Amino acid sequence: MTEQLYYNDSYLSSFRAKILSCEEKNGVFEVILDRTAFFPEGGGQPGDRGVIGACEVIDTKLENGEIIHLCRGKVSGEVDCSIDWKFRFSNMQQHTGEHIFSGVLHSLTGFDNVGFHMGKEEVTVDFNGAVNSETLALAERKTNEFIYKNAPVTCFYPAQDEIKNYDYRSKKEVEGALRLVEIEGADLCACCGTHVRFAGEVGMVKVITSENYKGGVRITLKIGEKALEDYIEKNNSVLEISSALCAKYGEVSQAVKKLQEKQNDLRIELYKANEKIAELTARDYSEARPFVFDSSSDPETARMAANIGAKKVETAFAFSGNDGDGYKYVVSSLTRDVRPVSKELNSFLEGRGGGKPEMAMGSVKARRAEIEEFLLKNFANGGNK
């Protein structure tokens, strides 16, 4: 069995090992070493990557009790190995930060962490109860207070007869030797992952989102370097918005609200203007010419015009657009099913669209002269009943 060096020293980033086996499967070489500092995927933490000999390790997994290193090339003999330390340390930050947060939230609510996933950019934790925003904010603050205290993080294996003396968290029944991870004063949890030595190395923990999930709650966290990267990105965004709106950094939200209010006012004004245009356009409806072309080229105005036109003629057509880009159409009627009419338009004028019995919408590729000729021939003076 491979010696698990990462349990003796999670900070070990390079070592020398013998190749016990190297087998190719689906274009990837599965390598087993006599000793390894590569952590295999487990407990919500991804597997390590790095280099064995001269070959890249793209992942590490535990399969049938064996630690398997997935390599891009064949290796043999005794080789130097190194893990991707930046990736590993980030995982250590995130895993330890999740422990502190879960322990704190458990102490505040009594809810258990029933799910944990460490993604590329964020960590998600699932709890078996609803957590309100005030409690979530308190948990975040207390978590970071433990980090500021730089509490020690210790991993140990209690003797079998001592296990009953420990009040620890665990998401599932533990098989084999029990490994406990303790953050002094914050958490005690059964865990197989790698962790930092002191809480201060976590940096910070930031709650990003919270959503209802399977009768409980799923919380998304940014931890360590990921939290810093998130802050930098959001800070840059706020600065850009601040500059664009000519607003002070701390007054961006108020400036956005004012902009939204102004936009709502403009939407109302635009709607009223479209109504007036539609009323003017609809004056041209007659049984001889049951169609109009909206000069504003706005589909919403055309829809309004068609609704007005349906009160004047049996089948009212309204078009918006131009010969170059094509035309969008609306067909409306108070007395007939316009869906067959829409199909006829689509068939003869290279169009597409459909709708409900009282109104259909779509577009055609024909020129205005062709559209008018078709409508005059088939629908003028009550045609095409």
Task: Describe the 3D structure.
By secondary structure, this protein is of the alpha+beta class. The protein contains eight helices and 20 strands. The chain has helices at 5-8, 85-109, 133-149, 225-245, 252-282, 299-309, 339-348, 368-378; strands at residues 3-4, 14-25, 28-33, 35-36, 50-52, 55-63, 66-71, 78-83, 113-118, 123-127, 153-156, 180-183, 187-190, 205-213, 216-223, 291-294, 316-322, 326-332, 351-356, 359-364. The strands form five sheets. It has a six-stranded antiparallel beta barrel with strand order 2-3-7-6-5-8. Helix 2 (85-109) packs across helix 3 (133-149) and helix 5 (252-282) packs parallel to helix 6. The protein is elongated. 31% of the residues are buried.
List the helices and strands and how they pair.
Layout (H helix, E strand, L loop, with lengths): L2 E2 H4 L5 E12 L2 E6 L1 E2 L13 E3 L2 E9 L2 E6 L6 E6 L1 H25 L3 E6 L4 E5 L5 H17 L3 E4 L23 E4 L3 E4 L14 E9 L2 E8 L1 H21 L6 H31 L8 E4 L4 H11 L6 E7 L3 E7 L6 H10 L2 E6 L2 E6 L3 H11 L7
Structural features:
single chain; about 375 residues; alpha+beta; six-stranded antiparallel β-barrel; five-stranded mixed beta sheet; 8 helices; elongated
